[in-house]
Here is the input.
Amino acid sequence: MEPLLTMSASEARMKRNVWLLFFCQALMGASMIGQVAMSALIGHSLAEDKSLATLPMALQMLATMAASIPAGIIFARLGRRTGFIVGALAALAGSLIFAAGVWKGDFLIYCLGAIPGGIGFGISQHYRFAAAEVASAQYRPRAIALVMAGGIVSAVIGPELVKHTQDMMLPFLFLGTYLLLALLPPVCILLLAIVDLPPAPPRQAVATPVLEIMRRPAFISAAVAGMVAYGTMNLVMTSTPLEMMLCGFGVGASATVIQLHAVAMFAPGFVTGRLITRFGLRPVMVAGAVLTGGCAVVAVLGRDFGHFAVALILLGIGWNFMFVSATQLLATAHAPEERVRAQATNDVLVFGTVACTAFASGAVHAGAGWALLNLAIVPALVIALAAVLWQGRRRVAEPQVAGASAD
Here is the structure.
C-alpha cells in the first residue's frame, strides 16, 4: 500500500500546483481583459487621429511578442519562478504608466504603458507551458486547458472593475480602474512563492537550431493554428467596443460583451482537455475553426446587443478549442531540452500576428467597416485547417512528449 500512498500524494501535489498556476493566470489575465474593454475607448478619446485608437493595444501585443525571446532566456537560465515574477513586476509598471497617461490626458504616455504591460502579458502566456511541465503525461492536456481556464476569473474581475470603477476618480475616467489593477500582480507574486515549479532545463551541449525546430510539421501546424486562433480573435475583439460605441451603446454594455467573450474563451478549458483526449486534436481544432467562422456570420447579420454578444461568445469558444489544441500539438514538436526555444519561437510568431491584427483592427474598421472586418477572418481559418490536415498526412518521427495523441 505504501507505493499507492506515495503516488496519491504526488498526484495531489501535482494538482495543487496546477490550481496555483490557474490563479496566477487569472490574476495576470484580468489586467489584459480589462485593458481590452478600455484601451480602444481611451485611445479614441486621446488620439487626434481616430484610426490610431487601437494603437495602444497593438503596441501591447508587439511588446508581448518581443517578450518571448528574453522570457525564454530567463526561464532557461533562472527557472520559471524568477521569470514569472519579472512578468508580474512588468504588469504592475504597465498599469501605473497607463494610469499616468490617463491622469495627464497624454496619448504618448498612455501608449508607453503598453510596453511593460505587454511584456507582463507575454511572460504570463508561459503559465500554460508550466502547467504542461508540472503535470504527468496523462494529465497534461487537462492541466494546460485548466490553467488557461483561469481566464474565467479574469473575465469576471477585469470587466467588473472597469464597469464599477471607471468614474471612481472623476474627471479622470478609468484612472481608478488602473490603480486597482495594479494591486493584482503583487498577489500573483505571493502565489508564485508557494507553487512548486520545475528547475531550469539542463543546458544542451549543442543547442538544436531554431530553424530545425521550425521545420518540423508539428511545429508548423501548431504555430499556424495558434497564429490564426489568436489573430482572428484579436482582430474582431479589439474593434468590438468601438463598433458598439458607434452603434450607441455605453461602456457598460461593451464591457459586458467583452466579459461574455472572455468567459467563452476560458470556460471551455474545464472540458477542452477531455475532448482532446477523447476525440483527438484535429476534430477539436476543426470545431474551433467552425465556431470562429460562425462569429463572422452572426456579426454580419446585425448590430444589436444580441448579435454582438452571440458573435463574441462564438469567437471565444472557437479560440479556446483552436488555441488549446495548438498548444498541445506544440508539445509534440520538441524534446524536453528544446522546450524553451520552441515555446519562445512559437510565441514570437503568435503574438507578432496578434500585434499586427491589433493595429490592423482599427485601420480596417475605420476604412472598410465592421462587416468586412469580420469576413476577413474566413481565409485565415481555411489556411489553419489546411496546415493541420497537411501535418496529419506528413506526420514523421518527431520527439513525442505530449500525453495525448495528435490524431
